[in-house]
Amino acid sequence: MTEVEKVKVGWEEWLSLPDLGLPAIKAKVDTGAKTSALHAFGIYEYTERGKKMVSFGVHPLPERPDIEIHCAAPLVDKREVTSSNGQTELRHIIATTLEIGGQSWPVEISLTFRENMAYRMLLGRSALEGRAIVDPVQSCLCGVLSDSLYDELVPVEPEHRPLKILLLSREPENYSSRRLVEEAERRGHTMDVINTKRCYMNITSARPEVRYGGKVLQQYDAVIPRIGASITSYGTAIVRQFEAMNIFCLNSSDAIRRSRDKLYAHQLLAAQGIGMPVTGYASSPSDTNDLISIVGGAPLVLKLLHGTQGKGVVLAETKKAAESVIDAFRGLDADILVQEFVKEAAGTDIRCFVIGNRVVAAMKRTGSEGDFRSNLHKGGKASKIRITKEERATAIKAARILGLSVAGVDLLRTEKGPRVLEVNSSPGLEGIETTTGKDITGAILDYIEKRAKIIADKRLRGRKRVKRVSKSISAS
User: Fold this and answer.
1) What percent of the chain has pLDDT over 90?
2) What is the DSSP string of 47-104?
3) pTM of the predicted model, to two decimals?
4) CA-based, 20 to 30 A from 348: which of 131, 377, 406, 469?
């Protein structure tokens, strides 16, 4: 390309990504950033005819949250990308076509969550080198693309067909399992409930299998993993096998493992700027005193790394009590976290139920008299609550960092803003549905229907989900 043929662009520009079905998106042009970035949620990898692909959703216009486009693109790589605020994130890199100023060329774009950013896309220098001249003073030199282009898109809706869904659970009669089965069947789907521990695998690169009772489990459109903490390792191995079979799993095996390892989850969340109670971790008994001082001294909270539903959580009201409990846990060769006790929370927390990129419901949980733990399984009580914009954003970001499509994010309200206590990959449905009166189960099935059909329906793979429309450009 000669110098004359280069496109002249300003510090912000309207562009199109036609292969993704995005006719208009406003991008910030940033030559200080090497890699381009696109807002994405619900990212999911799959293989099509031996080629690695990734599907994801996009809200292309910040002022039009009603517009939600689902895209698919070839997966080029996964790379660590450092953002302008210094945070490093492992991102999916896709290949697609960029159209701007009447010209088009292939580019690589990283996928990341930019829901709270003013621009849903950042155009980096690697996408512009040899193709464009940047004028950092001017704006929209290539014209303005109207958001009405999205109104003109005619969706190619998949023909409704029942889905075959597998629920991995060792408790088929509990509330969550029964509600999922009832709602699936009400919608005309088939849902099999199978004990995770009874599944076994034929591990082979040619044809991976999950077997149950002598038969191969296959032809499923989606898998809902409700993996108990006691079988995390085996359960996630089963989920990983279904992923190798290119079956959509509501929560991925990696995401489940990240959320179950409290230490690793805390490290990931802290690295991305999520507020949490001050937390410490050490192995040697000689470090106990310093560890206690790190979290501000007693009272403090001690947590087993792999406990759930309030089990393995102890409040030590004095330093001596803390030392005794730490020594006792170490004597059992148990890994524990030492955590600041947030007094102003007064034994209450907030459970935010996240599906995709939305908090669909929230409730306040208060511990029973004399118990600082607010878990409903421990006799806590729940009530409706209206969460703040900051609490909502924190819950969504925490679930995204761990890679969970469905999550229960537990927050504390503090003087310094929301603090994440824990992120649960198999949140129960009974408490949140009973308290809020919302159909959370239906929202989960809505998400599965949308995502599974995009990934599993071969009639949609490789097809455009929107008809092409001509792009009208008005001068800026």
Assistant:
1) 46
2) EETTEEEEEEEE---TT-TT--EEEEEEEEEEEEEE-TTS-EEEEEEEEEEEEETTEE
3) 0.71
4) 406
